[in-house]
């Protein structure tokens, strides 16, 4: 096993990366190795998806599958070896179909890509894990420089993040053939184990730029389906009654759950990245969407254990449900998987509803505590003139975007402290699950009534924040880097990696990232990123705040 894709990866004096029998997240060596094999099978599939396009064969079912299956390899998504094998087999089946369809048009069609004819070693897990050794991500680590290895990982993890957003967009009926082509090209290229540093750097930014398009598609899909988010108050305390908790990023699953629970007396609560749902008109119209429960994903074993109803995980981040003893009342959807946990193949939530009816629910209501969400793209753009006026009148000094992932390391208290120390005449934009570090604190309003904490949405809603920055820069006739704006990002998994690549590709400079640097980027690579983009690590909240305000 070798996996180095997330912030909690093992860091040892003899080499970084989870490489024993189990990763820090609980992923077994078997599942991890099978994921390496799945990735190789997807590289093979992408290679033929490109070939097929040369012959005018475009199959969007295969395109969507490639992104979806890739998503299953992200951190805290799928821990079920059997499901990973099924994805790999399906990849091979689709690949073989594409070969046949290409050869039906031109019998001599072939590819010299090293993985073009990868054949899975049967269907037994033992044989496949043995085969997976050939595709370990550190296979040639002693033959290449640390920089090449690090940049390969940067591209791989960026592509994974983009694939996850492609899948989220596809669920909402959004895709783009040009983006699919680019995605397959990056996949196929990465499958050749590239070694040229300039190309690796260039393509990592290319992946970031591609992802900007993907986030735009996702924004379009969400707003077309559920309307433009508007500022909305959300109770974060339980109320008496039977209940279901839904987590992850898939708003379409939530909509189906709300439809199916309407009139049943069951209250629905959002968890984690589902919180922004309360801002969407087509979701908040359901009165039994009563509130948000819990904090960041890393607290779920404690919080789900106490939740008196079933839980649905629609995407990342799931962790071992056996620890909190609730494996019999958690359900996975789509790409999510945990061995022994019930998986729902479609949006029929009847068994979840039945279980909620049988459970006690919350015995009494706690005193309400309301927070505000829903500062999505349109609301932000509508406020841009007001923001410009506030700056001109010296009532708004600086905007801080403090967002990204949450996680469990102690250093993450940095983000709480940073948000707390933002001066009274400054505003905090936030997004992603990292906001749980401070979103229940009281920030008040600026003179004129603009809230000082603006929750933009899920991690992918970084798109809305980017659009606001671009809009403000256009109106002020300056560049994004000239705005009184500082980005303080927190990363944990691969969606955050691709958002960072997107920001760098768009030319955003001087971003602060933490809590620690990715273990796959060595000091030389960090120095390159610092020199080219001003990318910097965290020091102390006070020092970074001072530096940001002095810009
Ligand atoms: Fe948080 Fe986990 Fe949004 Fe990440 S709930 S770290 O996957 O995607 O953010
Ligand atoms: Fe380790 Fe993170 Fe990979 Fe899990 S996802 S095995 S914690 S690097």
UniProtKB/TrEMBL annotation:
The modification Cysteine persulfide is found at residue 405. This is Hydroxylamine reductase. It is found in: Cytoplasm. Its cofactor is [2Fe-2S] cluster; hybrid [4Fe-2O-2S] cluster. [2Fe-2S] cluster binds at residues 3, 6, 18, 25. One of its GO terms (cellular component) is cytoplasm. Catalyzes the reduction of hydroxylamine to form NH(3) and H(2)O. Its EC number is 1.7.99.1. GO terms for biological process: response to hydrogen peroxide. It catalyses: A + NH4(+) + H2O = hydroxylamine + AH2 + H(+). The gene is hcp. Keywords: 2Fe-2S, Cytoplasm, Iron, Iron-sulfur, Metal-binding, Oxidoreductase. Binds 1 [2Fe-2S] cluster. Binds 1 hybrid [4Fe-2O-2S] cluster. GO terms for molecular function: 2 iron, 2 sulfur cluster binding; hydroxylamine reductase activity; metal ion binding; peroxidase activity. Hybrid [4Fe-2O-2S] cluster binds at residues 249, 273, 317, 405, 433, 459, 493, 495. Belongs to the HCP family. The keyword Aminoacyl-tRNA synthetase does not apply. It comes from the Bacteria. Transmembrane segments: none annotated.
